[in-house]
Write a structure and sequence with these properties.
single chain, alpha/beta, Rossmann fold, 6-stranded parallel β-sheet, 3-stranded parallel β-sheet
Amino acid sequence: MENGLTNLANRLPGSEFETRICCLLNAGAFAERLKPGTQLQVLHKPSGFSWPAVKKLAALARDWQPDIIHTHNIGTLIYTVLALPWMPKIILLHGEHAEFSDSELTLKRCFQRRLAYAAVDRLVPVSVSLEEHLVEHGADRRKIVAIPNGVDTERFQPNEKLAARKRLNLPEGAFVLGSVGRFGEFKRQDMLVEAFNLLAAKLPEVHLLLVGGGGPMESKVRDLVAASPHKDRIHLTGFQADTREYYQVMDLLVIASTCEGLSNAALEAMATEVPVLCHTSCGASDIIKNNQTGWAVPMNSANDIAIQVTGWMGRKTDIQQIGRAAREYVLKHHSIYSMVESYAALYRGVIPSR
């Protein structure tokens, strides 16, 4: 279960919508944040394809009798489409959260996606840039309703940085680079560690804060940290259900990811007045205006990241001004309330009148 799904489920008006959640594999850590009373069913699908999981999903739909099924990412969509013949008549929506990696652009996967998209009533990407990416790869634009991610700007807001650093045992005078998220294949935290090593050799005040856990690259990243000659200035926190205080100690959030839709971590950092330096992956241009709300630039190597960070470390006043502008931007354009209302309007619009 993803952070965005939890935020949406918790905030849809209960007088109008009842949300029930089915997870194919496991519920994950974000399930703990669901508001009390939310129904959650886990199918515990084994690895590989599972026809029994298809049948369980169909049986669950017959039991729940939903008006809408809203799938997230391609695996859940494929299982839902296969289960449709045994389900009651429903409206099928599908959310896409990131641009397609090379593994998602194989002939087999493209064929699967094209067939699955044909059964969908609406496709819901999380940014306008991702909408264009989907159309480029064969999606029917007439089915697409882009709903940008939103952030809870009351929950994520700036606080006294020095006090937060004291609580987290970080030096007051450090320049803290941050990263927040799981260690996914395309997140490139390994490249960020390599970039930090280049920086740390010349700049004794720089520290690296890696917030998150899980994912196929976690072991590699931890090994790189253990082998770093500057490992005493790298701080691994593991998974954190509440990341607010970690953003508050950062000077700069660095997102080296090559596959994004619209980064929740970027929005959370911006809401906390932390500027974002990110690779020019899909969705970055939707929220990052260079030298105004952050920086979206090509970062194809550790040296690229090191050069970008070095260029801004001596301009702390400018960084603070850009951080304040970033918060103003998300307050105006990416509040969680406008996101939830957009989903509610979509749901109202596709449900037949009764």
